[in-house]
Amino acid sequence: MTTMSVIPAPNLQVVGRRLQPIWTDAQQVWCGRDLWVYRYHYESRRLQAVFRLPRRSNSPGGRLRDALARSWIKRWLRPGLDIDTLTQLPGGDLVVLFDRVYWYSPGHHKRFAEPLAQAGIDPPLAMPLRGGLAVHPASRCAYFGEYLNGNHREIRVARVDVDRRQVEICWTFARSDIKHVHAIHYDRFRNRLWVCTGDQDHESAIWYTDDEFWTLHRFGGGDQSWRAIAMLFDEGGMEWGMDAGQDAPADAINRIYRHDFTTGQRSERVVIGNPAYAASELSDGTAILQTSFEPRRQQPTPAAVSLWHRGVDGVWLPLLEMPYLARSRDGKEPYGHLLIPQGQGPAGQLLCTPVNTARHAGCLLHLRWDA
Description:
By secondary structure, the chain is mainly β. Helix content is 5%, strand content 45%. A hairpin with a 7-residue loop joins strand 16 and strand 17 (217-221).
């Protein structure tokens, strides 16, 4: 049964189509569509194309192929992948992950981002899950872990150092320990990087490093309650939403958990049903967590995607729910999402993009509610 929200439904305004919000601060949101990165300002509500990823080739043939791939008719008939992972470094530079690792600096680049070398990395790095990229502000380095399915090799963590224009491997997990990395998060309250891994019980764990991957420690794990993608941090503790998807047993109902660093105790906060894919902080200390829908799930959960709101009192309540509706053109049974940005946005506002939903599918929405 769907939980009814006691929070007034947010106001929804359509910003554009085929755009998704990726990273936010209190003033702006970085969004992606195709190979382009856009900036949206909360106050002015202005959406501006800033830069794009470079062409593979600047030859006449390469330019023609790129123009055809960027055309509206190709994007309508056979939409390709969009940029979905980037982060902003201290000082304003961006690290973008797509087919390669890219660096964009307003002071060095104009229209095109710059690919960074991955010398000596073989096989090439696999990209992370959406949003699985974190920055340590002390070093200005960004970190991500490989997300692979059906693989039998070691899983690597990469360090992106734009000051040296270099990408390097800084940690390696044995395949017997994990299947893949779900996300890496920076905890500003403990100056610590956290790593989420999955998927089977013995692979589902939360790890941490206090020295940027010179060492790595297993914090907890061993069952589906430690299978996480989305994490949030505060002065006293941390919270995460379970990511027990369609391969999890029927009794693995997804919940939000909290660990209190003062008492050392872990507690259940709320049942959310479907798996949590992302979380976003807001400037007043509140937060948003997003659940997705996997059609072949074993759990008896609603066929819907949702946003959950954590108030200043720490209580989680539903904010928005949209029914699931598959809209794939290739006949596959896709997942439903409400894509939200990482980072810390303004109080009472959020950008999100519904995917495979009964309404507003593929539209970038500006949500507002009483903060």
